[in-house]
Design a protein that fits this description.
The complex is a heterodimer of chains A (410) and B (215).
Chain A lengths: L7 H4 L1 H11 L6 E6 L6 H15 L3 E6 L4 H14 L8 H17 L6 E5 L18 E6 L8 H11 L4 E4 L11 E4 L16 H10 L8 E5 L8 H11 L6 E6 L8 H12 L5 E5 L5 H11 L2 E4 L8 H8 L4 E4 L4 H4 L7 E3 L2 H13 L1 H18 L2 H14 L6 E3 L2
Parallel strand pairs in A: 1-2, 1-3, 3-4, 4-5, 5-6, 7-8, 7-10, 8-9, 10-11, 11-12
Helix pairs in contact in A: 2-15, 7-10, 8-13, 11-14
Chain B lengths: L4 E17 L2 H10 L2 H14 L10 H8 L4 H8 L9 H18 L12 E17 L2 H10 L2 H13 L7 H8 L4 H9 L7 H16 L2
Antiparallel strand pairs in B: 1-2
Helix pairs in contact in B: 1-5, 2-5, 3-4, 6-10, 8-9
The chains are: A alpha/beta (410), B alpha+beta (215).
Chain lengths: 410, 215
C-alpha cells in the first residue's frame, strides 16, 4: 500500500505539505464511513485507498459496513435504477422491508464517529439514530450516483432521510437538487499508485493479452465496466460493428462483478448473445483477485477506450484511461463531462452512430488521438487524483465547524 | 527592519446552490440573486481547474452561453470582460448584468438549454492559511516564489485582491510599502493573470524579480 510521501513524485511536495498542514485541523476528530460493500464498485475502491492515507495523515478515519441479504440488495438495486430514471416496481412491502433492515443495522452499528459519512442509498436510513446523539455528531450523506432524473416515488422516500443530514455531497453539479441542507461538490478520484493505475512493463501487458488470447495485430477498442445495462455494453457492440464495416479492429468488453449487483449475470448473457461467434469481440469477466493489474494492462494495451454509459455516477474508468494517456470516447452523462472537455481532452458522444464516427476518426488520426490523451492526462493529474479528493474531504469536515464563505484557519 | 512577507495559501470547497438556469433570462436572474462567492466562483473556476491549458477557457457564464445556448455574440462579450480591472466582486456582477440586460433588450427570445445542460450555480468556500514560508527581502522572496505551491501564488495574485477587497495584489503591495520597490511592484501589477497559465504567471514574476536583482 502506498504511503502519502510516495505521491510527492506525482503531484509535487507542495501539495502533500498542504495536506499535512490541513490534517492538523482535524486532530482528535473521528471520521466514520459507512457503506454496503467492501469490494467491487467505485465506492469500495475509493474507500480502500483513501482511508489508510487519511489515517497516515493523522486523521482517525474508519469504515463500517451495513448488513443486508439478497432481498435487501435486490430492493436497493431497484432504488439505484429508479434514481437513474429507469422504471422499476417497488412494493409497499419492500419499502417496509428496507426500513426493517435499516433499523436492524441502526441498532447493530456502533456510532463512534464525530463525523459520520454515509455512502449512497443503502445505509441512508441510519440517520434515524441522529436524534440519539444531539448535536455532537455531524452526519453527511455522500451520493455517488446520478440522481438527475429520479423516479419521484423513490426520491421522495429517500428525501425524508436526506433532509435530516447536516450536509450532502454530490459528484457532479447536474445531480444537485433543491434541498434544505447544504450540498457540496466533491468528485471521486483515482489512485495513480494503485495496481489499476501504476505504470506496467510491456511484458506484464503482453502476458495479460496472451492469457485472454488477444493479439496486437489490429487496433484494440476497449470498454471497462461491470455488466450493467446502464453502461450500454450492447450499444458498444453496435458501434463496433459499424466501425468494422470500414476498419479491421477488435473490441474488448471487460468487467468484474460487484457483490451488490444482482443483475450482472442477466446483462452478461445479453452481451454474449449479441456478440455471437465474432472472434474479434472479447468478452471478459475478470476474477476479483486479478482484477486491477489485468484492467490496467487492458487499458494500456488499448488504442481507444470507450465509456459509452447511458447513466453514470461519475465514471472513474474515464479518469483511469485518461491517466494512461489514452484517447477516450464517452457518453456525455453524469460526471463524465467534468473529466472530458469535448475535442480537447477526449470526445463526448450521445449516440451509437456518434461513437462509431469518432472511433473511426481517432483510428485514422493518431496524432490528434495522442494529443487528446496527453491533455486528458494533465487534466486528471490536476483535478481527479486521490490527493485532491482527500483535500476536499478535509475541507468539508473542517467547514462543519465554521461558518461563512471565507474561513481563516490561522 | 521590514515587515516580512508571509506566504499564505488557500483551498476552495465548492458548494452547490441547487439553483439552475435554462435560458438567458434565468441566467440573469441567478446572477442578480446568488451570493458574491458564486460570482467569484464562476469567473475564476477555469483558471484554477484548467490552469495548465493555454489559452484558457473563459469564465463559466461565457462558456455556457457560447457552447450550450450557442448565443455566440453574447458569449464573446462575456468572455472578453476584463476582470482584472474590477476591484470588487459586486462590480464584476454589475458588468455581467449590464451586458446581459442590453443583449436581452435587443434579443428578447432566448434559446433554451436541453435537459441536463442547464447552468448550475455554485459558490466557493475559501479556506485561508499560513504556509511555513516568509521573506524579509527580495532575494528570499524570489526563492520562495520559485517553490511555493501554485495555490499560494493564486491566492496572493487573485483571491486576496478580489475576495478580500484589497487595492492590489499582495506581492505588489508588500514591495511598495516595505521594500520601496515601486517600479517592480508596478510591473507585477500590470501582469494580466487572467490570460496565462498560473505557471507562466509564476515564471513572469520570477523573471521580473531576477531582472531587478541582477540589474
Amino acid at each position: 500500500m502506498a504511503k502519502i510521501n510516495d505521491y510527492i513524485k506525482i503531484v509535487g511536495e507542495d501539495i502533500i505539505e498542504e495536506l499535512k498542514i490541513l490534517s492538523e485541523r482535524l486532530k482528535g476528530k473521528v471520521i466514520q464511513n459507512i457503506n454496503s460493500t467492501s469490494v467491487g464498485g467505485g465506492v469500495a475502491e475509493i474507500l480502500n485507498r483513501i482511508v489508510p492515507l487519511m489515517n497516515e495523515l493523522g486523521v482517525d478515519t474508519r469504515w463500517d459496513l451495513i448488513k443486508g441479504g439478497e432481498r435487501f440488495f435486490n430492493i436497493t438495486k431497484r432504488f439505484h435504477n429508479t434514481l437513474h430514471g429507469i422504471p422499476a416496481e417497488i412494493s409497499d412491502e419492500e419499502f417496509d422491508y428496507f426500513l426493517q433492515v435499516e433499523n436492524e443495522n441502526a441498532q447493530a452499528i456502533n456510532f463512534y464517529g464525530d463525523v459520520i459519512l454515509i455512502h449512497d442509498p443503502q445505509p441512508i436510513g441510519l440517520i434515524n439514530r441522529k436524534k440519539d446523539f444531539g448535536n455532537n455528531k455531524k452526519w453527511i450523506w455522500r451520493c455517488h450516483i446520478d440522481i438527475s432524473h429520479p423516479e419521484i416515488k423513490v426520491w421522495d422516500f429517500l428525501k425524508q432521510f436526506i433532509n435530516s443530514y447536516d450536509a450532502s455531497i454530490f459528484s457532479a453539479p447536474v445531480f444537485s437538487k433543491e434541498l434544505p441542507i447544504k450540498q457540496f461538490l466533491i468528485s471521486p478520484s483515482i489512485d495513480p499508485l494503485s495496481d489499476k493505475n501504476k505504470e506496467l512493463d510491456a511484458s506484464t501487458i503482453d502476458s495479460v493479452l496472451y492469457k485472454y488470447k488477444i493479439t496486437k495485430d489490429k487496433p484494440i477498442i476497449t470498454q471497462i465496466s461491470r455488466y450493467d445495462i446502464l453502461k450500454d455494453p450492447l450499444g458498444v457492440i453496435d458501434a463496433f460493428k459499424l466501425v468494422r464495416k470500414h476498419i479491421d479492429c477488435q473490441l474488448i468488453l471487460a468487467g468484474n462483478t460487484a457483490t451488490d449487483d444482482p443483475e450482472h449475470d442477466k446483462v452478461l448473457n445479453m452481451v454474449k448473445e449479441k456478440a455471437g461467434n465474432d472472434s474479434d469481440i472479447h468478452i471478459l469477466v475478470i476474477e476479483p483477485a486479478n482484477n486491477d493489474i489485468e484492467i490496467n494492462a487492458l487499458q494500456r494495451a488499448s488504442d481507444i477506450v470507450l465509456q459509452k454509459s447511458l447513466k453514470e455516477g461519475f465514471g472513474l474508468t474515464v479518469s483511469e484511461a485518461l491517466w494512461k494517456k489514452k484517447p477516450v470516447i464517452a457518453g456525455a452523462v453524469g460526471g463524465i463531462p467534468l473529466q472530458i472537455t469535448h475535442k480537447h481532452s477526449g470526445i463526448l458522444t450521445h449516440t451509437v452512430e456518434g461513437t462509431a464516427y469518432w472511433i473511426k476518426q481517432l483510428i485514422n488520426s493518431p496524432e490528434y488521438a495522442k494529443k487528446l490523451g496527453l491533455n486528458g492526462h494533465e487534466h486528471i493529474k490536476n483535478n481527479f487524483l486521490l490527493t485532491r479528493h482527500i483535500l476536499e474531504y478535509f475541507l468539508l469536515f473542517t467547514s462543519l465547524y465554521h461558518s461563512g464563505d471565507i474561513i481563516h484557519l490561522n | 527592519m521590514n515587515n516580512p512577507f508571509i506566504f499564505f495559501t488557500r483551498f476552495n470547497l465548492t458548494e452547490l446552490l441547487g439553483i439552475k438556469a435554462k435560458n438567458i433570462i434565468e441566467l440573469l436572474e441567478g446572477i442578480k440573486s446568488v451570493p458574491g462567492s458564486s460570482i467569484y466562483f464562476h469567473t475564476h473556476r477555469y483558471i484554477q481547474q484548467h490552469h495548465f491549458l493555454s489559452p484558457e477557457p473563459p469564465n463559466d457564464f461565457a462558456y455556457w452561453v457560447t457552447n450550450i445556448l450557442q448565443e455566440d455574440k453574447l458569449g464573446e462579450r462575456l468572455a472578453s470582460i476584463d476582470i482584472i480591472q474590477f476591484k470588487k466582486i459586486s462590480d464584476i456582477r454589475e458588468i455581467f448584468i449590464t451586458i446581459i440586460e442590453q443583449y436581452i433588450n435587443r434579443n428578447p427570445s432566448s434559446r433554451q438549454a436541453y435537459e441536463g445542460e442547464q447552468f448550475h450555480f455554485m459558490k466557493s468556500i475559501s479556506f485561508i492559511m499560513k504556509t511555513q514560508y516568509s521573506a524579509k527581502d527580495l532575494k528570499e522572496f524570489l526563492e520562495i516564489v520559485k517553490k511555493v505551491s501554485i495555490h499560494s501564488i493564486y491566492f496572493h495574485m487573485f483571491e486576496a485582491r478580489l475576495r478580500l477587497e484589497k487595492v492590489e495584489n499582495d506581492f505588489s503591495y508588500w514591495m511598495t510599502t516595505e521594500l520601496r520597490e515601486g517600479d517592480l511592484a508596478d510591473k507585477i501589477s500590470k501582469l494580466d493573470p487572467y490570460t496565462q497559465t498560473l505557471e507562466s504567471l509564476r515564471n513572469e514574476i520570477i523573471f521580473l524579480i531576477e531582472k531587478r536583482i541582477n540589474g
